[in-house]
Amino acid sequence: MGRLFLVNLEGKSYSCKHCKTNLALCDDVVSKSFQSRHGKAYLFSKVVNVYAGKKEDRMMMTGMHTVVDIYCVKCGSYVGWKYEFAFEKNQKYKEGKSVLERLIPD
Question: Whole-angstrom Cα distance, residue 10 to residue 58?
Answer without folding.
Answer: 34
